[in-house]
Amino acid sequence: MKNQWILTAVLLSGAVQLSAQCELLRGPVVINEFLAFNETIATNSIGQFEDYIELYNTSQEAFNLEGYFLSDNRGNNSRLKYRFGDVTIPGNGYLIVWADGTGDPEMEGLNADFSLSSSNGERVVLSNPDSVIVDYVRFGPVEADVSIGRFPNGTGPFTRMVPTFNGPNTNGESFNVVINEYMATNSTTAADEFGDYDDWIELYNNGSQAVDLTGYLLSDNENRPDKYTFPPGSVIGPGQYFIVWADNEPEQGPYHAEFALSASGEEVILSLPDTSTIDYYAFGQQTTDVSEGRFPNGLGNLLGCMAPTFAAENGGTVSTRNAAREHSDLRIYPNPASGILYAENAGGEQLTGRIFDISGRLLGQEMLRPGRTQIDIAGLKPSVYILQTKLGGIKFVVTD
Q1: Is the pLDDT assigned to residue 202 strictly greater than 70?
Q2: Residue 79 DSSP SS3
Q3: Is-contact 240 205, C-beta < 8 A?
């Protein structure tokens, strides 16, 4: 059994709290693109060029949006302007909501009772059935037939682009800096230059050119997106990481923000100098020394329960504190393996297992049904890989 990796049922302190962190607040559906001045791009069911909002399901599995809300305002009541009925968005599928101001339930398609302002700019807000905001973007004035969307599609930062109505975003202005990882309760992971273990936010530059962040904004509250302004000289090189300490101690230096993150949950927002949103994450209850971050590094969706990788590449591995959540529901064997890998799913729920290499490239996926699933890995070169499910990631080794 020495080559068999078994996730054991060890009960750890804080396991209930960690379990909550593993269930990401956002979920798989994101605001993917919207057009606030539609002059020639696409028409609704009665042939009119109306504003539209496009949602995208980043997962492989269908997702029912019943009870979710969409709005152009994030006020406590105003965020509930449009409520989804029994609407399912397929895995890796798109969904269009016409922001035409009619809210007409008799008209074909989904029609919201609000429209978007292209002249002044405003907000697009997606909230869950508990009215908790799960995705959000603030935008400024936009020209006709210029949309704002995520590039790369589904996971990237928001940027202006040529509209790609009801399909993948294939173009966009290349702003390659993203929120890559954050920790809202840091006890032992990393200390600042004064030896303090404080909250931190990590940015990453996916591009091939340095980016000058001078004047850009970082915050934990959309009502004040300018809580922290990057000072002159804040340059992040290609493939580099940039740490801002969210410790509410700005007197300690230029990269110490005037806010701290709440372990009970809030939001992290990266904005342009004009307060337009670049990247946004809302998060729930956090666990000490467990982070949330993008996987694959810099490009992928948010992964909860992550083993922290302060100022380094996100490996996508689940924190060792997550053993209680994983317990013996899923195991893989043999490990190391050659040719065939087995996944034993002792839970009652089918899981989507995706295989990544250590650079974060998606190589394939398997449906892990209850019971044993045989995975053909004959085409994988000897190396370390990660089997990723919604519960987290498990490393395995492929040998000759």
Answers
A1: yes
A2: helix
A3: yes
